[in-house]
Amino acid sequence: MNLTDEWIRQTCLELPGTEAFMKEEWGSLLYRVGGKYFAMRGTDNESRQILTLKCDPLLAEEYRERYEQIVPGYYSNKSHWNSLLLEQGGLEADFVQGMIRHSYERVRSGLPKKMRDELPALTEND
Fold first, then answer.
1. How far is CA 102 from CA 23, 24, 48, 109, in A?
2. Domain range summary for the chain, segments of one domain joined by +
3. What is this structure's pTM?
C-alpha cells in the first residue's frame, strides 16, 4: 500500500483527541494529542518526504537496524523519535499504523492525568 498523506491523516485522526496542526515555520503537518505532537509529516533537510514518530528507544534502534526506510528522527531527539522515509516505500500499512498508534500512546501516557482522563478511551478499533 502507498502511504499517502490522506491515509496518514485518516490514521492519525482516528485516534481519540487527535488534532492536526500546520507548523508553518517547519512546513510540516503535526498530529497532536493534548497539545503534544506524536506525528510530524513533512520533509527533511534533503527534501525527502518523511513521517516522524515517537518510539520506545530500544524499539526505535531495532527498527532502524531492520528497515533502511527508518532513520533517526529528523529535527527530534534521536533516541525517542524515528523518521520514516516515505518515498522509499516497502513498509506495510499495518506496520506503520502500529507505529503511529505506539507513538500516540507514548505521548498520551505522558499527559497530565486529568487531561488523559478527559480523553475518550483507546480501543482496539481505534
1. 22, 26, 23, 11
2. 5-87+101-113
3. 0.92
Is the Cβ–Cβ distance between 29 and 37 less than 8 Å? no
CATH number of 5-87+101-113: 3.90.1150.30
What is the distance between the alpha carbons of residues 115 and 32, in angstroms, rounded to a whole number? 13
Q: What's the pLDDT tens digit per position in 5-20? A: 999 999 999 999 999 9
Q: Locate 4 and state its grid cell.
A: 499517502
CB 82 within 8 A of CB 64: yes
Distance, first Cα to last Cα, the chain = 20
Given a contact cutoff of 8 angstroms between Cβ atoms, the answer to whether 82 and 70 are in contact is yes
pLDDT digits (tens, 9 = 90+) for 34-81: 999 999 999 988 999 999 999 999 999 999 999 999 999 987 777 899
The pLDDT value recorded for residue 125 is 60
Reply yes or no on whether the pLDDT at 3 is more than 50. Answer: yes
Contact 8, 91 (CB under 8 A): no
The three cell numbers locating residue 120: 475518550
